[in-house]
């Protein structure tokens, strides 16, 4: 699956490399490759396959679009006006290598590329294309998308559940919904799976932020405490956060709707969830 995703992303990004200002083209490549675990596009493709994968090009386009939005959010999140982070995915962040102006532009270009990718790839079923565009737009903007998630950090009071929902869960929900829609299934029935998985992933990230080192995370650790942001460990304690994580994963598995590949999908979700935390942090609370 990773080969399928990386090939599709390389092809989609290739249109930005011709006649583009060279440093912007380089910044775009740097922001996207090499990537992380590609959780969101893998989730979209996994759901599409479980639903029959009737339009692989549309599924690939949706998966790429969601990952481009994710990469853009990381580039912008690292900027000095936000987290001022020097490290991302184990290497210097985009603004440290290419400067702030190009980092802003690279993030903007990736957001636009997300929608161009859907427009180019989801042509076999135009009726599905409109839905995919809407799903990606909602996940990226306001009131509940990643822009809203970033904006919560500028508010005096930050509700943890709403913050997690916008900051992280929105793209996971878009991934499951888009995967279903690309294969011709009702996207609404797939939303809860993504929402619960996204919240679980963010709780796991909160746990790692409190317990791991920057080297282990590949990005600055301890940022939530340093910046006064809500964190599941701060609010619930370590054992409480782990119990919440377990509950969210169980709810995600329970939310998988009927589909041809339901059994395999359930196993894949359970297997992936075990990787949210490293082994030394994955001992479940009693």
Output the keywords.
single chain; 286 residues; mainly alpha; Farnesyl Diphosphate Synthase; two-stranded antiparallel sheet; 14 helices; 2 strands; 68% helix
Topology summary:
Elements: H1 2-14, H2 22-32, H3 39-50, H4 56-77, E1 87-88, E2 91-92, H5 94-98, H6 100-121, H7 126-140, H8 146-152, H9 160-182, H10 191-211, H11 214-217, H12 223-227, H13 232-254, H14 262-273
Antiparallel strand pairs: 1-2
Task: Characterize this entry briefly.
It is built from 14 helices and two strands. With 286 residues, it is mainly alpha-helical. The chain has a single domain, classed as Orthogonal Bundle (Farnesyl Diphosphate Synthase).
> How many helical stretches?
14
Strand order of the largest sheet: 1-2
Mind telling me the CATH class? Mainly Alpha
Q: Assign the CATH superfamily.
A: Farnesyl Diphosphate Synthase
